[in-house]
Amino acid sequence: NLLELFQRHNEDVKKLIGIDKSKATYQKYEVTRTRLTDFIKEKYNLSDIALKEINHLFIADFEVYLRTTCRCNSNTTAKFMQFFKRIVILAKNNGWIVADPFANYKIRVAKVDRGYLSQEEIKEIMNKKFATKRLEQVRDIFVFSCFTNLEDKKQRKEKEGNRLIVRNVCPFLSLSAK
């Protein structure tokens, strides 16, 4: 069954957190499984569905469900569909289904113009007070990214020896900062 396989897969992903999977990846798989669970319950009044029942129509109906009932935008829907497709491929690779129901299904990701923040907007973010220390740290990392052009993932990978390089490109950090 689909949700049974999804649950088993997610348990494996959870075991790999900190090894080669992130907690965020696990959470995305879990949300996808929850959305599928709700969809199957609403559409078919079932608690799970046989893998052999997954076809192009099921996939298209799930996409419509995400867009309408869950009110997901096109790129969020595409991400859910990508996670769902990985489970279907897992089933196919294990011989539990013969054909890939995603074979003629195109997952479309829309190009998004993210735009840029003005100096005034960055200053406003810099001066924003948050209720928790964690959110203030997130703000500080974001502002740091704005000035250094370093992405969050790259910042997390920075090591002690690289701090001088970062300081040289960011005039807002003092040389004595540790």
UniProtKB/TrEMBL annotation:
Record key words, sorted: DNA-binding
InterPro entries from the UniProt entry: DNA_brk_join_enz (IPR011010), Integrase_recombinase_N (IPR010998), SAM-like_dom (IPR025269)
Gene3D superfamilies, alphabetized: 1.10.150.130
Domain (Phage integrase SAM-like): residue spans on this chain: 1-107
Family annotation (SUPFAM superfamilies): DNA breaking-rejoining enzymes (SSF56349)
GO molecular function, one term: DNA binding
Protein name: Phage integrase SAM-like domain-containing protein
Pfam families, sorted: Phage_int_SAM_5
Source species: termite gut metagenome
